[in-house]
Amino acid sequence: MHFLEILPSLPFILEGVVVTLKFTIISLLCGLPLGISLAICKISHFCILRKIAEIYTSIFRGTPLLVQLSIIFFATPQLTGYPISAFQAGILAFSLNSAAYSSEIIRAGIQAIDLGQWDAAKVLGISYKHTLAKIILPQAIRNILPALVNEMVNLLKESALVSVIGETDLLRRAQVVAAEKFLYFEPLLLAALLYFLMVLIISFFAKKLEKKLSYA
Fold this sequence. Notes:
Helix 3 (47-62) crosses helix 5. Helix content is 81%, strand content 0%. The longest helix is centred in the N-terminal third of the chain and has 33 residues, at 10-42. It is mainly alpha-helical and 216 residues long.
């Protein structure tokens, strides 16, 4: 073991944690609203909206995330002439991919709510829009919170793919240190432990939130 030899590079590796968390949080904040919109389209009475949402989900769930990331990063400059950065490509790819998966989770959560609540709201004269936003969605989100947390954890781990396109995230920094020191086990093990620690922290706070909502 040569952990002391990579100790001077520890601050450099730890900076990658910030980059990884930025990817995860921004992608989730962008992907979740799109996922909610897609879920609403999937339960819509309008056939065209359902079809568009289903096609979108099929494409992003049916192709590897690495392929999506590569297309966005390498093909965007060719197609648009706009030189997209690795960070922008990563955020866009993860947001679009996360939206597809979270839309299925949210759709299932909405459809799990008792139909009687829809009927009761209709009898009371509450519009479809307000019923969905004020009554159905809050209950659905509470019920599917564990699944959404799982999606966030997956997003965190999948963010390591941005190292392929040169973004200096946690994995990429560990690889740089490994190449400089000619030591691969120690920096990569450290990266794995940091990923594991982040997942544990997310899971801890998610359980706290879940418990708090269960008493609400």
